[in-house]
Amino acid sequence: VQLQASGGGLVQAGGSLRLSCAASGRTFSSYAMGWFRQAPGKEREFVAVLTWNGGRTSYADSVKGRFTISRDNAKNTVSLQMNSLKPEDTAVYYCAATRRILSGYDYEYDYWGQGTLVTVSS
Questions:
Q1: Rounded to whole angstroms, how far apart are CA atoms 63 and 75?
Q2: pLDDT digits (tens, 9 = 90+) for 5-61
Q3: Cα(62)–Cα(101) distance, integer angstroms
Q4: Looking at residues 51-80, what average pLDDT do you find?
């Protein structure tokens, strides 16, 4: 599976962005899909994940109620809708695929996209 993330950019605090991740490969629907982020000088952290069919989701506490992860298996895409953005959301965002049912651990992911930068100004 090859992953290509897009949709990052500069936004003011309180604004919204929608990230997308396009996947190649016929087995996309077999994978749970997650989003992680890495802020400057910090370790990569879990943001959100959903199961292969979108039936279950899990979010980091820091984004609950503000971010929504979704997928379209017919189009081989996964999205992250980010609302009420805060300066502390500034990071490079990565999409990733795992064979696990759900996982918040980056070492359990098998494939990674290249990352897209989100910058939130105060």
A1: 26
A2: 999 999 999 999 999 999 998 788 899 999 999 999 999 999 999 999 999 999 999
A3: 22
A4: 96
Q: Could you tell me if 4 and 114 are in contact, meaning their C-beta atoms sit under 8 angstroms apart?
A: yes
Q: Which of 65, 68, 115, 83 is nearest to 17 (CA)?
A: 83
Give bridge partners of residue 12 from the DSSP assignment: 121
pLDDT at 68: 98
Q: What is 29-96 written as a DSSP string?
A: GGSEEEEEEE-TTS--EEEEEE-TTS--EEE-TTTTTTEEEEEETTTTEEEEEE-S--GGG-EEEEEE
Q: Which two tokens stand for residue 48?
A: 């959100």
